[in-house]
């Protein structure tokens, strides 16, 4: 996430995802190993006959192996074997060209989702702009990892 100028979700976030979703069976974790070392992993949620790709991460030292493609392909195979009917690659900000290209490589169909907020002071709906790029991404890309983790622990308790 640092590479993208974003703070990482804290460990307790993923611990809670496992406790409340994965361990109750409406989720799946797929991991690619290279010589016994995890080099890419993704988290999927499922409900009814639909599945959703939610989180993914990989070790940049092994990107030449394309482990994310393997992880995604194995998840798709698993969901097909379990007779799921829909597989969503999840939301992607229009500014994330690399992630959009990765998902398009699987033949996905993009759909635009517009978000609006209702401003009580203005008594009207207001558009929501993308916050993917800006001064904060430049700063966070250069922030030392221990401080970035601390920012993530604080922010993810207060966001969403």
Summarize it.
The chain has 160 residues and is α+β, with helices and mostly antiparallel strands. Helices cover 34% and strands 24% of the residues.
List keywords for this structure.
24% strand, 6 strands, 34% helix, 160 residues, 5 helices, alpha+beta, two-stranded antiparallel sheet, 4-stranded mixed beta sheet
Description:
- The chain has 160 residues and is of the alpha+beta class.
- It is built from five helices and six strands.
- A four-stranded mixed β-sheet has the order 1-2-3-4, covered by helices on one side.
- It starts with 10 loop residues before the first helix and ends with a helix.
Unreliable runs? none
Give the H and E element order.
HEEEHEHEEHH
Mean pLDDT across every amino acid position: 88
Fraction in helix: 25-40%
Largest sheet, strands/sense/barrel: 4 strands, mixed
Structural class category: alpha+beta
Order the strands across the largest sheet as they lie in space. Answer: 1-2-3-4
Supply Rg. Answer: 17 Å
Overall form = globular
């Amino acid at each position: 996430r640092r590479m993208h100028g974003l703070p990482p979700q804290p460990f307790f976030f993923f611990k809670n995802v496992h406790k409340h979703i994965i361990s109750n069976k409406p989720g799946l974790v797929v991991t690619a190993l290279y010589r016994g070392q995890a080099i890419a992993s993704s988290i999927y949620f499922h409900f009814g006959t639909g599945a959703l790709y939610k989180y993914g991460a990989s070790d940049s030292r092994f990107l030449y192996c394309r482990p994310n493609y393997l992880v995604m392909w194995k998840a798709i195979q698993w969901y097909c074997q379990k007779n799921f009917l829909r597989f969503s690659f999840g939301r992607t900000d229009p500014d994330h060209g690399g992630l959009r290209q990765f998902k398009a490589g699987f033949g996905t169909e993009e759909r635009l989702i517009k978000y609006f907020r209702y401003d009580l002071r203005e008594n009207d709906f207001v558009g929501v702009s993308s916050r993917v790029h800006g001064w904060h991404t430049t700063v966070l890309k250069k922030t030392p990892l221990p401080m970035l983790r601390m920012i993530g622990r604080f922010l993810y308790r207060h966001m969403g």
